Amino acid sequence: MSETTRTPLLEVRDVKKTFVVRPMLGRSKEVHALKDISFTIEAGKALALVGESGSGKSTCGRAIARMFSIDDGRILFKGKDVAAARNPAERRSNARHIQMVFQDPFASLNPTHTIRHHLLRPLRLHKRVEAGQSEDEALRQVLADVELDVDNTLDKYPHQLSGGQRQRVNLARALAVGAELIIADEPTSMLDVSIRRSVLQLMKRLKEERGIAFLYITHDLATARYLAEDTAAMFAGRIVEFGPSEEVVRDPLHPYTRLLLSSVSDPHVKINPSIEDAKAFSDYADGVRAQTEMSDAPIETIRPGRQVRPVAV
Amino acid sequence: MTDTSMNTAPRRLVDVKNLTVDYMTLEGPFRAVKGVDFHINDGEVLGLAGESGCGKSTIAYALMRLHRPPAFISDGEITIDGEDILAFDDKRLSKWRWSTTSLVFQSAMNALNPVLTIFEQFRDVYVTHTGKSRAEARARAEELMRLVGIPESRLDDYPHQLSGGMRQRVVLANALVLDPKLIIMDEPTTALDVVVQREILQEIAGLQKQFGFSILFITHDLALMAQFADRMAIMLEGEIVETGSTAEIVDNPQHDYTVKLWQSMPTLTEDVSYGPTGGAQ
């Protein structure tokens, strides 16, 4: 590999996914969850996918983690197609390097098992205990990595931990197997406000100090800016705007990104309490959504690293 | 707040003194609310903020007298619109609920009955309380649907046929059906998307301006609350640690915990931009 064409850690190229919904009654319906999604993530960097629910951002994360197969396009991890893994060893290696952390820290841990069990299983499964190191030492190392109490956490059950601690266990589980890319799907949205920042800080530190890449899926542009170098705004299965987080927040080019930004609460600005204003905002939001969904134009690159999809007029 | 009567001091619609709520557990009583005092004036929006488990929803339930064992209101006084709520018997209570004070829950899906149409849910409340006819209930329901910006034809839909935002609007309309003086909103926008959240908040602000009811607005999202509340109260472990006008809480919070809450979320403008140490804008 030459210096000029360095392979990114993850490359997503023209990925498409259509789900067919077959209701009990009525005709089946096609849902285009992902349409021509392309982006790259470098090692030690984070990309934030922002958008409303139903925009396809979680589907995108799940596609990369191979929770289902895609219809078209390619997902390359270190230059290798993840779908092309031919033997169990390769598949296991992909699974090991691409890990997910889910939104709900309560549902993602088994309530009948201790934290020791949750962390030891992946360590054993992927043979991650190094020679000369006892399992206990490996566990303590993993706990220390996510800043959990090394002495008192292992024998606790999930219900004895707070939401923030549980999310740390989930991150620890990903680290235990040597994740290089962590797909974090709204990891802080179910946590209490006062601990969200500390979990974000931990992720930021893992990114900067351990070189772990993150695909950070969120609806919160402020945290996207905090954690991720790049931000991609998604709507209706498409990326509508892509660029450095700072620029996307300061100088949004797409009306949908502007709509997302205008919905972020600013405590210094009072809401104008009039029914007309409420109607005007709703109409504005509906208008932007319709306008965004209508456009079939391919995304345009304005300059390297900055893309925006033209809107229908 | 915008009262034009001759009284200079606004009337206290809600006056809570030394409210104490205990939950009976196997290890003995757990005090969830520890002698809390607060008031809400006529037409005022009071924001109550705190983390999960701090007792803010317990206060909401106490104001509606919804607590069932093992929860007990063990001490204190609650006066709403000049009446001692804690002295009500069951009959008085069921008449009073919804007509003077109504409640909007966080989860709109759970607040609506999935096997009844939207209209049936309106009719249920309206006819039970007023004894009016079905046709009158229909007229009132249509009026409210227009008010929250949903086509009247959707009255015959079932809750699952509506989007999350629409459902929350229906719940809001349902809370207005008897023209209450106080609406308690327990995390009314938390389960919603960012944009929809903003739409609903605009809607609530508009309705409040138009009808002048008071709101107890409960959320953990301080920034959102600050955009809307007249005064804010910050709760920590069953106690209100700080109360003040929204401007005071935003720009000059006194309690360490309030400062911590402000600093806990990154913002769009600066890394930490609120509170005394921050430099917002």
Topology:
The complex is a heterodimer of chains A (about 325) and B (about 280).
Chain A: E1 10-21, E2 29-41, E3 46-50, H1 57-64, E4 72-77, E5 80-81, H2 88-97, E6 98-101, H3 115-125, H4 135-145, H5 163-176, E7 181-185, H6 193-210, E8 213-218, H7 221-227, E9 230-235, E10 238-244, H8 245-250, H9 255-262, H10 275-294, E11 300-303, E12 306-308
Parallel strand pairs in A: 3-8, 3-9, 6-7, 7-8
Antiparallel strand pairs in A: 1-2, 1-4, 4-5, 9-10, 10-12, 11-12
Helix pairs in contact in A: 3-4, 3-5, 4-5
Chain B: E1 12-25, E2 28-41, E3 45-49, H1 56-63, E4 71-80, E5 83-84, H2 90-96, E6 101-104, H3 108-111, H4 118-130, H5 134-147, H6 164-176, E7 182-186, H7 194-211, E8 214-219, H8 222-226, E9 231-236, E10 239-245, H9 246-251, H10 256-263
Parallel strand pairs in B: 3-8, 3-9, 6-7, 7-8
Antiparallel strand pairs in B: 1-2, 1-4, 4-5, 9-10
Helix pairs in contact in B: 4-5, 5-6, 6-7
